[in-house]
Amino acid sequence: MVAFKQARRRDDDIAIVNAAINVFFKSNTDRVERIYMAFGGMAPTTVLAPRTSELMIDQKWDQNLVERVAESLCSELPLSPSAPGGNIAYRRSLVISLFFKGFLAISQKLINAGIIPEDVVAPEERTGCETFHTPALKSAQLFERVREGQPKYDPIGRPKVHVSALKQATGEAIYCDDMPRADNELYLALVLSTRPHAKILNIDASKALAMPGVHAFFCSKDLTEHENEVGPVFHDEHVFAAGIVHCQGQVVGSIVADNQNLAQAAARAVKIEYEDLKPVIVTIEQAIEHQSYFPDYPQYVEKGNIEEAFKKADFIYERTNRMAGQEHFYLETHAACAVPRDTDEIEMFCSTQHPSEVQKLISHVLSIPCHKINCRAKRLGGGFGGKESRGISVALPVALACYRLRRPVRCMLDRDEDMMITGTRHPFLYKYKVGFTKKGLITACDVELYNNAGWSMDLSFSVLQRAMFHFENCYKIPNVKVGGWVCKTNLPSNTAFRGFGGPQGMIVGEHIIRDVARIVGKDLIEVMKLNFYKTGDITHYDQILETFPINRCLDDCLRQSHFYRKRREIEEFNKKNRWRKRGISAVPTKYGIAFGVLHLNQAGSLINIYSDGSVLLSHGGVEIGQGLNTKMIQCCASSLGIPIEMIHIAETSTDKVPNTSATAASVGSDINGMAVLDACRKLNERLEPIKKANPNGTWAEWINAAYFERISLSATGFYKMPGIGWDPVKNPNARMYSYYTNGVGIAMVEIDCLSGDHQVISTDIVMDIGSSMNPAIDIGQIEGAFMQGYGLFTLEEMIYSPQGMVFSRGPGTYKLPGFADIPGEFNVTLLTGAPNPRAVFSSKAVGEPPLFIGSAVFFAIKEAIASAREANGFSKDFDLQSPATSARIRMACEDRFTKLIDMPPVGSYIPWNVVP
């Protein structure tokens, strides 16, 4: 009796296909007496395979039987192309593969019992029946020790615990929806479009309004055309759909009622009549076919002369590939709570990364000035960019209802609502043509990048720009032409996500460098080093790389990971195992630090010192769990020379620090930290005479004396990032980015060629993050970013209907990495002796740069697949789309079993994210 299960994620997940085989043999023989085979995932209920079982009776248990059974199972268990769940070819192949795994497992038992000879199953095939198990995890975290002579209470450079860690771990931390309900409070539910592209003919809310406890319905008719037009940059969106809906999940109206259940039931009772419009565009390919682009695109960035360079190149190679989107899946969904103050004031509690933007748009929608709106954020339960701009979908209807009804109103989206409404990371299509020498030196590259923006622009133009500026990753290409298109489709508007187009661009460079190494037949590491940027080189957008330690990062990571030893061991392992293969890959990263829009690179702070010596610190950043408040307290404590316990940050609030930038682009610590230091400098200057008069006094004594001498103990700070704002025409001498954060990751994986499952055996990362202000937080950010990148490139798959309906609307259908997906060995090292003069306390930004290193797993998987394909007589040159799900891994490992399944050849495009 044997059983197998294959799921999208190994732990805590339902099966895609599972199988159980119960076989009885004639006494002490290898002939089948009777057999029962059951399969799940091939029909609405578990199914048997009686016809195939019948043909096995009295047959010899050997490889010939496997061939007959495989063919019989293919015909006995067909699957319609329109069967629910998709992945038709993969599921059909799993039936055969899981039977074969059962055959191998049972054969091993018969061999051990001495019933059949060992040569029935070749030694290299025997591990095919094994399944992965979570190993005993181990890890190392290495960082620079605090410099000698630093005062013991100076927290800079020390691994300090996140100031809210205990509250968050115990569940005591208060988030937006944890706030106690106010007297007379109402709940708001959104009315959403059910059509992807349609004209609204009529909205009938009478049935909903007739329900007891329902107080109001709002739609576009309750706002002027100007008030209804909103958006983070371009006002091309609406608070409520006006005349036409552009995607399923677009907000058409809102219901306000006594409680959540009632409001949601009433929202479903609102009847909307539509007239469908054509076309409905879901994929990038459809957008290209219909020329559905936003105005002013395509845009190009050029350097050198690619035509001449292509003429001189020894090799020219072209390829097309894709990278999927990714759901933010923050633990706290979008939430907002508005409370009326006085007759024309509003206080907004909002789960947003950009309180000032919410304040500004509420001002616009309600036609009241910003100074009558206070937007507050204590902490967010994750954001990852998803709460930079899309929070307006909830915040603006809540603010409107509160202002019109003069009652507190709140809304927190359910997970399915959140995933329907708020958009994802931008999917990308990229095409490249690369020219290079026989030695593997890249001389020219022509790249086309297309991103799927959804129905509105949001921040898609900036996402595309960063992708265009990061496509070459760490490799110098002297002749470049990069074209970019922002595609308009009938999907929810896609938005910022950790990396902000950087990963979508850099994966192009990593595909290119591997194509070059494969074609010229040279070692990948050698080709990487040959093409690496060096200090003093200039990018294709004219920025000088003043320091570029990528070679040092790579060498340290190769040494730390024992790369060359592992690679030799992998070669031996792959020779000895037919159905399990291993791969190892190194991935470097270069991430530019700054907002792409000049005016956002600024920050403010406010420090109030009270007469007892305690300090209240406010700054423009939002605590999203990333430890920003902890670092700001460290900056303040170091500058004022006091223990961190004397400093408190209450919340982020627009009435304390105005005109804040979004907490995004990884610059939260950089700009807010410098603003905090500026405020501290002013306070230190005011306190200097007091300290001179009483040099042996305590902090409390100095503050008390300052108070009685009527010295101001409140100061604001401000910082603007210098030297940036590059524009090829208006400001060609400025920088695009303030500096770069670099790093290298090496991942080793093992794949199961029969099921498509995989396991990350080890991961080693070396990151250059300058002089870390808090190694504990920074290493945590690196580990978290890697795992989120790992999910992006291997597990997380958004599925849509041909009409643009999001099918993956929760953890049942959308798979995040789990505990079993953590690398068996996970080592992170911070590069030492690499201070950064362009940021606070010589540190570097750390939030987004490590995410792309998760692609090391993707490329290691690709190496393992290539080994499997080579062993089966297939080309090592094949396309693997991201994410490398179990289905894609299995079908790329072509073998005699997959050949029994009717499917398109490897490399042909299957619209993986659109299913019937």
TrEMBL record:
InterPro entries: Ald_Oxase/Xan_DH_a/b, Ald_Oxase/Xan_DH_a/b_sf, Ald_Oxase/xanthine_DH-like, AldOxase/xan_DH_MoCoBD1, AldOxase/xan_DH_MoCoBD2, AldOxase/xan_DH_Mopterin-bd_sf, CO_DH_flav_C, CO_DH_flav_C_dom_sf. The lineage of its organism: Eukaryota, Metazoa, Ecdysozoa, Arthropoda, Hexapoda. This is Xanthine dehydrogenase. Keywords: 2Fe-2S, FAD, Flavoprotein, Iron, Iron-sulfur, Metal-binding, Molybdenum, Oxidoreductase. Pfam families: Ald_Xan_dh_C, CO_deh_flav_C, MoCoBD_1, MoCoBD_2. Residues 2-106 form the CO dehydrogenase flavoprotein C-terminal domain. Its cofactor is [2Fe-2S] cluster; Mo-molybdopterin; FAD. It comes from Glossina morsitans morsitans. Belongs to the xanthine dehydrogenase family. GO terms for molecular function: 2 iron, 2 sulfur cluster binding; iron ion binding; molybdopterin cofactor binding; oxidoreductase activity. The keyword Iron applies. Residues 170-278 form the Aldehyde oxidase/xanthine dehydrogenase a/b hammerhead domain.
